[in-house]
Recover the amino acids of this structure.
């Protein structure tokens, strides 16, 4: 008959008994099962099993209750671990996991370095064929602004170009603009177009004074060409030589028809004239000395 068989009717009464899982503590037995209530062991020794009930060769231990009944049979094993023991175990596991992860990462980095050190196949680039450049046949156009037509013609044609200008331009006229602009390059034979103006005349001091005097007379009242010459050459007038007075009358740029109109209006403002009387006054050698055409133009302008 087995030593570990205990009838259910022999269960001990409720009370504190040695903890079957920790011999240094006591656990509360409610009469049917063990509870979660645990306390430190008292000074009284825990009941022990009868002599000979446990065999040394067996790997089980039997806890006997005071009544002699078998309460529980516990297999020997690991003792219950304290909280700090579990903390040390968790820390060890974390260190182990970190070490394994570092080893894996190191292996991956080594693979990357090995891949980086691997020689890369050179990519051959096709060599472009050299392009033969066409020779530059253009030539810089000479700058001729401010020069005479004659001077510019020599420079432009000497550089391999041709010069074009407006009709009637003299060789002594001064160039004011050109195209293409001086300094720009153009093909040989290109026509360089220029614009020019007549040179300013150079007058003697007497001519300058005579011209100024003639303009003053015209600003004062209406004069015919001959009347202006007589006024400037008269000893009672300006006293210029006849040739100088004539040159001044021809150079001042007067509109003789407009001068005749102005003179006719002055006569009418002075007194009343018939058409014929005004015509005679305008054409008389002692009057305006206008030509017949100029007098007729004036009569029409004033309403005759």
């Amino acid at each position: 008959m087995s030593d570990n068989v205990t009838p259910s009717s022999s269960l001990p009464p409720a009370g504190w008994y040695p903890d079957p899982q920790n011999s240094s503590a006591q656990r509360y037995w409610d009469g049917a099962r063990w509870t979660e209530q645990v306390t430190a062991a008292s000074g009284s020794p825990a009941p022990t099993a009868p002599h000979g009930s446990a065999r040394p060769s067996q790997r089980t231990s039997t806890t006997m209750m005071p009544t002699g009944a078998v309460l529980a049979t516990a297999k020997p094993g690991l003792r219950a671990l304290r909280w700090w023991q579990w903390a040390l175990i968790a820390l060890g596991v974390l260190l182990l996991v970190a070490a394994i992860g570092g080893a894996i990462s190191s292996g991956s980095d080594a693979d990357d370095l090995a891949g980086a050190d691997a020689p890369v196949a050179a990519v051959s680039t096709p060599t472009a064929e050299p392009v033969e450049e066409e020779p530059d046949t253009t030539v810089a156009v000479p700058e001729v602004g401010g020069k005479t037509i004659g001077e510019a013609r020599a420079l432009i044609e000497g550089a391999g170009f041709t010069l074009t200008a407006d009709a009637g331009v003299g060789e002594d006229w001064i160039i004011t603009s050109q195209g293409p602009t001086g300094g720009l390059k153009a093909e040989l034979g290109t026509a360089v177009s220029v614009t020019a103006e007549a040179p300013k005349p150079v007058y003697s001091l007497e001519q300058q004074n005579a011209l100024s005097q003639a303009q003053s007379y015209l600003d004062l009242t209406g004069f015919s060409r001959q009347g202006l010459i007589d006024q400037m050459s008269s000893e009672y007038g300006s006293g210029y030589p006849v040739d100088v007075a004539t040159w001044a009358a021809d150079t001042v740029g007067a509109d003789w028809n407009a001068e005749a109109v102005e003179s006719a209006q002055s006569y009418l403002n002075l007194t009343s004239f018939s058409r014929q009387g005004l015509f005679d006054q305008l054409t008389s050698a002692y009057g305006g000395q206008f030509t017949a055409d100029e007098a007729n133009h004036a009569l029409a302008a004033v309403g005759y």
